[in-house]
Amino acid sequence: MYVSVKGGEAAIRRAHRLLADRRRGSRDVAEIGSDQIAEQLTLAVDRVMNEGSLHDRALAALAIKQARGDLVEAAFLVRAYRTTLPRFGASRPIDTAEMVVERRISATYKDLPGGQILGPTFDYTHRLIDFGLEEASETPGPEAADALPVTPGSTPRVTELLAREGLVEVEPRGEDGEVGDLTRSPLRIPAKRDVRLQQLARGDEGFLLALGYSTQRGFGSTHPFAGEIRIGRVEVEFDVAELGFAVPLGEITVSECQMINQFSGSAKVAPTFTRGYGLAFGQAERKVMAMALVDRALRTEELGGEVIAPAQDQEFVLAHADNVQATGFVEHLKLPHYVDFQAELALVRAMRAEHAARAEADAADVVEDHFEEAAE
Questions:
Q1: Cβ count near 69 (within 10 Å)
Q2: Domain locations in the chain?
Q3: Residue 316's CB: how many other CB atoms inside 10 A?
Q4: Nearest Cα to Cα of residue 49 among 40, 37, 39, 61
Q5: What pLDDT, in 10s, does the model give residues 230-247?
Q6: Statement: the pTM of the whole predicted model exceeds 0.85
Q7: What is the pLDDT of residues 249-292, one digit of tens each?
Q8: CA nearest 233: which of 249, 262, 255, 248?
């Protein structure tokens, strides 16, 4: 017989103390500070900000420390904190053409107007463990070698080159310029593209990467080219009603990806290229590339295609992309289900007893038939 586990609040308090002890680790090692996480584990911080739907590097770093490096748990903490913040309004759309570019590459144009800028990337590194990093040392900054190229001013997007010839679709806009807000209204299927992109932006990177990869392996009818991937700083502006004009709030770093996809056209539409789009906080190019692949896949039906693959199915993608929601649904299985299990246990026992009785009756009928045949 199963009985309830006892302990209650005292056991929970002890679990919290044990968690804090494990978080601290060995006292022979200096405790890591959230400022170190913010400055040296920047890609982890960027991911938590994206999946937590809040641009706050210090808070994301603190959440990573509190979560012992579990980025999904850290995003959960950030998103929970976000719900406590007052909302003053919405910022103006950022203009990535005016980005101060730190990294900009294209797989479609070798001689890209404005130039290709490699920037900080793992793309050209050997995937070999650098054991020299075991020892803390001051590595030279960019001023000690070649300075990191940063392009100020207007940098046109690659898709604008195609648009001049009418070879790429005109970027669809929301109706009357209105944009949905997934943080204030629940997700409803089917969702418009603006809401879909919001869900993808805060979706789990691994899940989106797998879906994007699936479209490349044939689970979807797209043939993508990375038109442009750019990373850099953009200015955020906020309209102040009392002033009658926008004021700058500061700069943030974002990653943007424009995927270019083949499209054969139709009786009404000339053959052209279509777009897939991704935008995220910080340096998150893998995330925005996966976003762009999935965004294009989700547009299959509106472009006259047939939905045949998981990445093209809105409900499959959008309902399962949110790792905070997925975590809650999966991890709730750890909570007590004693009553439910006892009910299932009693039902299975009753069914087994019924099955055994029926088998015994069937066996008795077989024996009786055997004796009757022998008597004849």
A1: 14
A2: 8-82, 96-120+146-330
A3: 16
A4: 61
A5: 999 999 999 888 888 899
A6: yes
A7: 999 999 999 999 987 667 777 888 999 999 999 999 999 999 99
A8: 255
